[in-house]
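Priority: medium. Attachment 1 of 2:
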């Protein structure tokens, strides 16, 4: 176990909601003040008709192969003062409602949110912990001890609600490099009208991550080990969603961060941390350090910033698989070989959410996005001039990760998992005197005991929920890394 140092926030706030009144007026910048009833979602590639929130959730990947985004970004700057004192669930209701409008009744949304976070081990959902001048935002207090529980517990309940309301069913297909799979499985296990198929790269997730997925025996859960890497699994996912006839006939749904609802749920904790630190420290803004491979988590921070959250800058941190760092430092996004690391959830060379950011980077020009994505598919490379001042970027090698874990444990009695250690390592190169730095802690260290043992020389990364998995039976199917093999498996299972 590990110690918490100087917890900043350890109180459960009231559960009442503040009334938010909106004039629903669009601004000159194409943003608008809190949600109205006409929030629509469009594709980054511009060839999918606009859809409402529920349809965006069920569609997952846009029918033209692009990613769905809100047509306008809500401007919530006038409401930050009211939001500052809200509990995490109440804040989640207010932030999410700006993107949902009346597509889900407010009382129903509140129930979905509260139900989603009842399984968390903290009434605050997340913890903010001061360690050596950094604020560590612990996002791993959900049922699978990873930040993805925050979004996927909500998404599972959201799917179940929409399916019941429409009297239909869904076959969820997902690809995981580690934590997404188990969080998605735990969010949907046993839920009515849902089958879930999760692909992971065989032998390339941690043993604990694998057991968290494969020990779930609910009849609606199907694990697939792909004989390849994560990018192979992600490619198969996009190929099957691109087969519109198959997608429609078998009601495929997405649980990966290509699903907008995943990003939406993650936006909330950026507001929560920034507003709490404002209140606690009196700072004007904060900066966030985000370990990332698929660009989903940091894109949520980018959306929060665009909405008006008091964020000065986002620090992007990658491991040796540094395609994103190379883009934000040199303007080159070029596919490379995937290198297995101590932080397997970041072992990615094609970031599935990056297209969403590119859409804004090129001025919301769908034609340019289509051209860029075609170019990347053909050459594995795209280039853009200029740098985005909202981002800093760096990478941490294996030695950096181990040294950061060892140093924080030795000097501050705090244990970092290897993904969080990458973020903390990179963050220390970009500290600012005037703005506090929040580092996202994305997983409990007990999920990566080998890395912790190597860094500290001690077997100290333990958690009772993890220990309970070790003697359970497992179930998983190994398949070739081909679209045909996975499609056949889905057909046989359904």
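Attachment 2 of 2:
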């Amino acid at each position: 176990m590990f110690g918490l140092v100087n917890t900043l926030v350890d109180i459960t706030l009231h559960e009442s909601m503040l009334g938010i009144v909106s004039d629903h007026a669009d601004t000159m910048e194409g943003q608008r003040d809190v949600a109205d009833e006409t929030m629509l979602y469009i594709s980054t590639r511009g060839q999918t008709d606009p859809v409402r929130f529920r349809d965006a959730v069920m569609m997952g990947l846009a029918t033209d192969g692009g990613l769905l985004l809100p047509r306008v970004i809500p401007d919530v700057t006038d409401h930050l003062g009211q939001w500052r004192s809200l509990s995490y669930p109440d804040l989640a209701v207010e932030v999410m409602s700006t993107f949902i409008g009346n597509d889900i009744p407010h009382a129903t949304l509140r129930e979905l949110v509260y139900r989603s976070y009842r399984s968390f081990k903290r009434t605050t959902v997340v913890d903010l912990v001061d360690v050596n001048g950094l604020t560590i935002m612990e996002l791993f207090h959900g049922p699978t001890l990873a930040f993805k529980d925050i979004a996927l517990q909500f998404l599972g309940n959201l799917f179940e609600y929409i399916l019941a309301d429409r009297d239909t069913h869904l076959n969820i297909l997902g690809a995981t490099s580690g934590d997404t799979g188990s969080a998605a499985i735990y969010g949907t296990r046993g839920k009515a009208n849902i089958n879930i198929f999760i692909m992971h790269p065989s032998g390339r997730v941690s043993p604990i991550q694998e057991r968290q997925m494969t020990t779930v025996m609910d009849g609606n859960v199907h694990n697939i080990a792909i004989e390849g890497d994560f990018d192979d699994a992600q490619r198969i996912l996009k190929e099957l969603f691109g087969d519109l006839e198959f997608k429609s006939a078998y009601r495929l749904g997405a649980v990966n961060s290509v699903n907008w609802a995943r990003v939406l749920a993650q936006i909330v904790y950026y507001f929560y941390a920034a507003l709490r630190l404002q209140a606690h420290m009196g700072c004007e803004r904060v900066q966030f350090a985000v370990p990332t491979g698929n660009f989903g988590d940091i894109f949520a921070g980018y959306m929060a910033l665009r909405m008006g959250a008091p964020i000065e800058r986002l620090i992007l941190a990658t491991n040796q698989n540094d395609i994103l760092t190379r883009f934000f430092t040199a303007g080159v996004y070029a596919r490379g070989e995937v290198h297995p690391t101590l932080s397997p959830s970041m072992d990615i060379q094609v970031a599935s959410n990056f297209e969403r950011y590119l859409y804004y980077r090129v001025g919301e020009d769908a034609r340019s996005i289509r051209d860029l994505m075609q170019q990347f598919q053909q050459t594995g490379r795209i280039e853009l001039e200029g740098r985005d001042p909202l981002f800093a970027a760096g990478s941490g090698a294996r030695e950096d990760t181990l040294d950061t874990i060892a140093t924080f444990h030795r000097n501050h009695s705090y244990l970092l998992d290897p993904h969080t250690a990458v973020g903390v390592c990179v963050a220390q190169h970009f500290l600012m005197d005037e703005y506090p730095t929040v580092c996202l802690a994305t997983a409990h260290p007990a999920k990566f005991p080998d890395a912790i043992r190597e860094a500290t020389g001690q077997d100290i990364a333990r958690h009772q929920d993890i220990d309970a998995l070790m003697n359970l039976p497992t179930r998983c199917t190994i398949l070739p890394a081909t679209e045909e093999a996975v499609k056949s498996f889905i057909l046989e299972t359904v």
